[in-house]
Amino acid sequence: MNLLLTANDDEVDLDLVVHNRRMLTPDIVALELRANDGALLPSWAPGAHVEMNLDNGLSRQYSLCGDPADRQTWTVAVLREPNSRGGSSYIHEELSTGAKMQCRGPRNNFPIEAATEYKFVAGGIGITPMLPMIGAAEASGTPWTLLYGGRSLESMAFQNELARFGDKVRLHPQDTHGLLDLATELADPGPGAAVYCCGPEPLLAAIENHCESTWPVDALHVERFRADLPDLADASPIEVELAQSGMTLTVPSDKSILEVLTEAGVEVDASCEEGTCGTCEVMVLEGTPEHHDVVLTESERESGECMMICVSRAKSKFLKLDL
């Protein structure tokens, strides 16, 4: 039996409390979040994430890695980044059991689609969105395997949860096994099979390079941690017209479209301002966007019908936006 699980577009703002926290590895903490008033949480599908608005003023997005059937609890796992800009370090040091926060979600930019077989590939904390995907594939009876890499066994979370799946799961710590052997693991693109991958950029670049030459178009689905931010040193000014108001603004090379609109008093929904959450998506009526987000699919990018104005710019000198 195949499955098709779609994204949940009904994201809401929620007041949540840290019901429980536990260290999965020396650098990864799992947080169980519940509604302050005990109400049921919105439903979600595998691949979804939640945005956590922290008391230090930062907003960060984390994949939901618990059971979608559990409407009482949302679970996220957070890696303490060695070069944290304040998000992961705050969560590790300040968010104890009982801490309250505002969250928004769920949002799904990485939905699992119907396939005859799933090849899941995870690197490090990229295991988090794979867990509910694996659960859905297992429940539906769709064949699947997981190749899971990390720096060392000690650094790899959720090993106990994955152990019950036996040889469907292959752990591949780099310190003892080297880099993932994608050529072997992904050698046979069976009809209707799909690859889902999440992890650090070198892994995603390697798997994209491999699948481009050996797998059918659209068989590979990836989720990135960070956007490919533009090099503003070589950027050119952009003229942006807002169709609803008729206002025309000049976006200089050292500012984003979102920054210029905000300075002009134009209200636009935005959150991460890093091209990862999808909140600032705007329809493009004229012109050719230059995409730098990690939200849109390749086909959505090629259509040029929408863009994330927090990081994306323009290949043309003029853009007309539906604002």
UniProtKB/TrEMBL annotation:
SUPFAM superfamilies per record: 2Fe-2S ferredoxin-like, Ferredoxin reductase-like, C-terminal NADP-linked domain, Riboflavin synthase domain-like
Bilayer-spanning residue ranges: none
Pfam families referenced in this protein's UniProt entry, alphabetically: Fer2 (PF00111), NAD_binding_1 (PF00175)
Keyword annotations: 2Fe-2S, Flavoprotein, Iron, Iron-sulfur, Metal-binding, Oxidoreductase
PROSITE patterns per the UniProt record, alphabetical: 2FE2S_FER_1, 2FE2S_FER_2, FAD_FR
UniProt domain 2Fe-2S ferredoxin-type: residue ranges: 236-323
Domain FAD-binding FR-type: 11-113
Name by which UniProt lists this protein: Oxidoreductase
Protein species of origin: Rhodococcus pseudokoreensis
